[in-house]
Amino acid sequence: MAAFKDGRGVTAESEARKRRLARYDFAPDPFQVQAFDALDAGESVLVAAPTGSGKTVIAEYGLEMAVESGMRGFYTAPIKALSNQKYHDLCGHYGNNRVGLLTGDNAINVDAPLLVMTTEVLRNMIYARSPALDSLHVVVLDEVHFLQDAYRGPVWEEVIIHLEPTVRLVALSATVSNADEIAEWLTTVRGPTRAVVEGRRPVELRNMYAYGDKTTHDIVLAETLIDGMPNPKVLKAEAGERSFDRRRRGGKAQRSRMFPPSRLDMLDVLRDNDLLPAIYFIFSRNQCDESAAACAKSGLVLTSAAEREEIRDIVDARVVGLSDDDLAALGFTAFCAQVESGIAAHHAGMVPTFKEIVEALFVRGLVK
To answer: Does domain 273-368 have CATH number 3.40.50.300?
Structure first.
């Protein structure tokens, strides 16, 4: 049972639940308690809740159940970067000897009771009838909304359908909109599954619009909404740009009052408005590398002396196994100059060691 009532009729947590939650210094939210109740009742659970609301606590509760039972828990993520991050997070909680990682780039402590992997790796293990699945008790499926992806969705479906019926699922998503429908399907293919939905967002989202004003030569940073309504300043700016486009297509040489901010100007604005760290999306690997290099070469430094020292320590610890010749061939000096400035590129084409360094620095707030 998840809870019991004492002689006074007061509901109290079970001893097992208290033990699993002992390391947290906060009381669980109602939606987390609902998920705990489902898992304690032997059900699987689908949790739909905003980013930062505490889905990870539910995932770790399920993993604790696996470890307590003397069996194994797997944590799957859709991409290697998330797998690496979750591996380091779990190592911090459980210790390196109890957590392993299995991706296309890394195989670390793969016999550990808790194993982090990409979803494709788990699918391949199922089809290979891996002995590692024999003692599997709980699987956490992070970003389960990938079920709806046209290309990768079948991987999630195959995992869900072909895992042994005795394996309990903890499915997590911040964006799935049809949680009840998915939970109903999960119940059909796997047995009782409870949908737990939390709509409250603990971390406020602010949508902002940036453009250059040729009249003042300033970069304007405006809220897109004011009291839930479109910001007139943004509407005016967008209307002016659309009008300019129409005039341009009509052959009349009219000049727009707006211009797109350069990346360096945009970084200055973000820094001046205390909006760093930031992620700047560019849809080209080469342009990611070129942009990071250009920012570093401009002399832009976003880190303090203490942060640069911490960055050097982390980088040095991560490249211990690489020779000087290897580092030189990989452009290590230029890479170090960038990350020490608080600037980094991140994409699938990077050298795995460098990519993992960037991820580790970003998690610590050292990549700005």
So the answer is: yes
